[in-house]
Design goal:
The complex is a heterodimer of chains A (326) and B (413).
Chain A: E1 3-5, H1 6-20, E2 24-28, H2 44-48, E3 53-55, H3 60-72, E4 76-83, H4 84-87, H5 91-98, H6 101-104, E5 114-119, H7 134-138, E6 144-146, H8 151-163, E7 168-173, E8 180-182, E9 196-199, E10 204-208, H9 212-227, E11 231-235, E12 238-240, H10 244-254, E13 257-260, H11 269-280, E14 290-292, H12 306-309, H13 313-323
Parallel strand pairs in A: 2-3, 2-4, 4-5, 5-7, 6-7, 10-11, 10-13, 13-14
Antiparallel strand pairs in A: 1-8, 6-12, 9-11
Helix pairs in contact in A: 1-8, 3-5, 9-13
Chain B: H1 15-19, H2 21-36, H3 59-68, H4 79-89, H5 91-116, H6 131-140, E1 146-149, H7 154-159, H8 164-171, E2 195-198, H9 204-218, E3 225-230, H10 237-248, E4 253-259, E5 262-263, E6 266-267, H11 268-271, E7 287-292, H12 296-311, E8 317-322, H13 340-350, H14 352-362, H15 368-391
Parallel strand pairs in B: 1-2, 1-3, 3-4, 4-8, 7-8
Antiparallel strand pairs in B: 5-6
Helix pairs in contact in B: 5-6, 5-14, 5-15, 6-12, 8-15, 9-10
Classes of the chains: A alpha/beta (326), B alpha/beta (413).
Chain lengths: 326, 413
Amino acid sequence: MREIAFREALNEALAEEMKRDEDVFLMGEEVAEYNGAYKVSKGLLDQFGPRRVIDTPIVEAGFAGLGVGAALAGLRPVIEMMTFNFAILALDQVVNHAAKARYMSDGQLSCPLVIRGAGGAGGSLAAQHSQSLEAHYAHIPGLKVMMPSTPRDAKGMLKTAIRDPDPVIFIESEVLYGFKGPVPEEEYLIPVGKGEIKREGADCTVISWSRTIHLCLAAAEQMAEEHGIEVEVLDLRTLRPIDKALVAESVKKTNRVVVAEEGWPWASVGASVAESISRELFDWLDAPVARVHQRDIPMPYAYNLEPESLPSEEKIIEAIRKVCYL
Amino acid sequence: MALYSTPILGDNLDASMRANYTFVRADARAVLNNYYLGLIEDIATGPENDDIDLEGHMAKTETTTETTDDHIQIEELDEELATKAREELGDEKIIEMLRSMVLQRRFEQHAGRAYQRRKIKGFCHLYSGQEAVAVGSMTAATDDDYVVTHYREHGHALARGMEPNGVMAELFGKKTGCAGGRGGSMHLYDVERNFLGGWGIVGGQIALGNGVAFAAKYRDEEAVCLSYLGDGAIHQGIVHETLNMAALWNLPLIAIVENNEYAMGTALERVSAVKELEKKALSYDMASETVDGQDVFAVWDAISRARKRAVTGEGPTWLDVRTYRYHGHSMTDPATYRTKEEVDEVRDLRDPIVRLRNWLVNEDILTQEDIDAIDDEMEKVVKDSVKFADESDFPDVSTLTDNVYVEWPAEID
């Protein structure tokens, strides 16, 4: 199968969906003439013209709100946030408006909106540009939250997100844009709310998403080589709703769980996943659920400090050893 | 009820008290203020008295006032605009405008009473005093146009033609409400009438209005989005983000600032560096003007012209529509930040319904008897809506988790 980069997979998803549906348009900072701050929208202006690929002023709340309104009126906006650090400015439009429209109108309105862009830890970007903020959105009823970890998932999930009738928050790891992987040439969709086992194993389940999946896979290989422990790596892919059936299936098989995430520990997605497992699968556990996460501090800039704050392969291995009593 | 044993709001108001209108009105307001403070809970549970006017000069009490107080010189409507409106709209349409304004005034009276009876809960923001803004603007709009508005929107909903029953039932939180009891007073919707809400975060809705206008332009529709906001909203960053984009892309947005002089309890002059709000649009090279919001024809005319500009590609308009609200910000606001005299002056001189009433009578389009009949009819419509709302069922608890999503491939919780 051909291999393409994560950003190219996203670009294909956008182009295909824009071709398929005239109501889809892309709006955001630098998406058109600059071809995207991360080149995800490269070539789309040439292909679809300025009516459908629209550069905005730097007004995250303003253009997110425009997207919400356009969605309420029946279009299918894809709103690019250069990074989700900036999307904080648009939280009112997302939380108070997009997420509430359908319920408050008793089903009269729908909001088929995608807000997508780079998220998660960058590299040496310091505290304001290096945050994993998925918990903000995963907390909100009315939103769906997707975070792909591979080019294949990125394409299939973004196409699904654009066709979804509800507001979808689609967070792409900033450091994965150049990551290459196999992507089918033929059309495919990956459903909302479906996780995937990225590596099978019978001894311990490691649950994660987005960039951290790759740390988990590396840790799993090392555990297999060094300890003969077969780790199952479960990629949630969608963080709202969680694929509870897949989690239950895996936990019942391995009886040991590590939840690894790039975000902070308190009130996080990982915390909720761990809580849900403790509550619903308690009898299947042979050890308390272990967690790996970023340290509970703003991201430091210094080259030696940043990795100390982030989750790592070593930290994941340590957690696996803990639940396996090694 | 120890505080007020006076019968002025009861059913035995006598003629001598009625004659002394000012006294009655002042006391009625004092009582109302105490209502709002929650000091009096059961006063409205007695028989309703429709002769006493809690809102100011409605047609019937106005007659009394004029004969007893000759200082009152009610402002006339702009004659030129009235003539223009009569030519373009015709008398029937103008009578409909009066009917809608009277309906709104009566609706809010009864909504206020229902609130006191605890039939309506939560936040409830009454529109009385501002009726000409809703009616003038909606009259200028077509069925294809869109409406996105703020939380003081009972009047907008009624002016857009939504059924009083459905609106009142929504205030009561009933399943027959226009949002199935999910929204309440601040969140009214009627997608069939392109009435896209009722939003409660100050200023946030204008961004949605801009998006709706964007969609109308994207699809080459001959439609605009009427986007209402209060004078309290104009300082929010998102308003300025939105105006810039609307002007930059020539979107068919009509931003209607219902300038009732107070952002909750804060007078405009205390928070706005710019006092003439039409100047705000200069930063965006956007058409703007100041409009007499108590003159329904002036509002109609300004919106009609703005609409024409918008659908011919001349872009958005920003309107500072000068109006006034008679009630406090919400039902719990005794409005101590302004004087009784100030409120009285607006009621006495610039009441939008009385001004239109006077014009209709002077032009021999309607007689006072006709107007009384309209008032009685609207009163009945509203009373029926209260009965309808009261007798409707609450939403089924089994529907609690419906309509969070269109599609949700999981359990709720």
